[in-house]
């Protein structure tokens, strides 16, 4: 969708909202519909003219584009905490600010600590920032991402202009209300328009702040503590072979460690399993006793008196 199409959609939406409000206000309070329609048309025309002016400016030279920049930098320094303080001083000289700062003091010579900072730097200083950071420590990584928000700024400006005119119109309707019902309805509509206006202004201010001040995340480590993700990829076949051999030996060492941990338990399990198997075999081969025959019934003796 082009910029003109988005602007047209935004202004049509504002026109629909204002027309609906005008119709409702005219039907309920008996206010003059022609004046309300004229105000709505004026608001729409001003919003469209403002959007056209913004669009014409934005599509001119590249300097008129509104771009949000975010960057990530990784430094190495023998004393990361001291380097972090130098970075803070640099941001102050650039008229920026530090939004977040974390420092971890080291436990000794082998652990000099680390630092992480979130900086807000003026966009005009982003070009020279890598060189400035390189003067504090060794710049291992520097990545910049950009986002063009010119269209979003145009849409917000057009909506703010239309909402401001709507607030003025609602204020005039409130001043001319003659009944309690008219006053209550006009106050409700005015409050709604004012809340929407404040929301749009806040959103536009946040966008302007992101454009004016770029966000830079800086991580500072000691040279021997650089994360593995920053290690350069092998450039030649021999470098790749060495990297592969190192990975292979590391994997073998890991497998041997696992086997060493599991071996005692495997031996114990084998002994227990062997004992159970021997016991089951002995039980299955043991002779069974023959069944005992029931005793014979007693032989009857000679009858008495035979």
What does this protein structure show overall?
By secondary structure, this protein is of the alpha+beta class. It has a domain at 3-62 and 150-193. It is 59% helix and 18% strand. The protein contains seven helices and five strands, in the order ααβαββαβααβα. It has helices at residues 3-29, 33-58, 80-93, 129-134, 150-175, 180-212, 237-285, and strands at residues 67-76, 97-108, 111-122, 138-148, 213-221. The chain has a five-stranded mixed β-sheet. A hairpin with a 2-residue loop joins β2 and β3 (111-122). α1 (3-29) runs parallel beside α5 and α2 (33-58) packs antiparallel against α5 (150-175). It is flat and about 135 Å long. Mean pLDDT is 78; it is low at 1-5, 14-38 and 46-62. Residues 286-306 are annotated as: Disordered. Residues 292-306 have a biased composition (Pro residues). The chain crosses the membrane at residues 255-279.
Question: Main attributes?
Answer:
single chain; alpha+beta; 7 helices; 5 strands; flat
Write the layout of secondary structure elements.
Layout: H1 3-29, H2 33-58, E1 67-76, H3 80-93, E2 97-108, E3 111-122, H4 129-134, E4 138-148, H5 150-175, H6 180-212, E5 213-221, H7 237-285
Parallel strand pairs: 1-5
Antiparallel strand pairs: 1-4, 2-3, 3-5
Helix pairs in contact: 1-2, 1-5, 1-6, 2-5, 5-6
């Amino acid at each position: 969708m082009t910029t003109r199409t988005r602007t047209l959609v935004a202004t049509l939406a504002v026109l629909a909202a204002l027309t609906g409000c005008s119709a409702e206000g005219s039907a309920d309070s008996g206010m003059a519909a022609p004046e309300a329609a004229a105000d709505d048309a004026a608001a729409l025309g001003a919003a469209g003219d403002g959007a056209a002016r913004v669009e014409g400016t934005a599509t001119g030279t590249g300097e008129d584009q509104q771009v949000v920049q975010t960057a990530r930098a990784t430094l190495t320094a023998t004393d990361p905490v001291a380097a972090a303080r130098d970075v803070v001083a640099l941001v102050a000289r650039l008229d920026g600010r530090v939004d977040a700062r974390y420092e971890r003091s080291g436990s000794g010579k082998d652990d000099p600590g680390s630092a992480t900072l979130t900086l807000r730097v003026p966009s005009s200083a982003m070009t020279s920032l890598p060189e400035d950071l390189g003067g504090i420590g060794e710049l291992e990584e520097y990545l910049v991402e950009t986002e063009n928000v010119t269209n979003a700024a145009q849409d917000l400006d057009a909506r703010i202009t239309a909402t401001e005119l709507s607030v003025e119109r609602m204020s005039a309707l409130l001043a001319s209300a003659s009944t309690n019902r008219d006053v209550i309805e006009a106050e409700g509509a005015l409050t709604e328009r004012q809340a929407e206006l404040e929301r749009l202004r806040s959103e536009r201010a946040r966008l302007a702040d992101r454009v004016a001040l770029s966000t830079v995340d800086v991580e500072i480590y000691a040279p021997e503590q650089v994360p593995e993700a920053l290690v350069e990829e092998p450039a030649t076949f021999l470098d790749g072979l060495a990297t592969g051999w190192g990975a292979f030996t590391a994997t073998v060492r890991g497998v041997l460690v696992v086997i060493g941990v599991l071996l005692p338990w495997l031996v114990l399990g084998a002994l227990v399993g062997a004992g159970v198997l021997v016991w089951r075999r002995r039980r299955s081969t043991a002779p069974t006793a023959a069944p005992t025959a029931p005793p014979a019934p007693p032989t009857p003796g000679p009858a008495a008196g035979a």
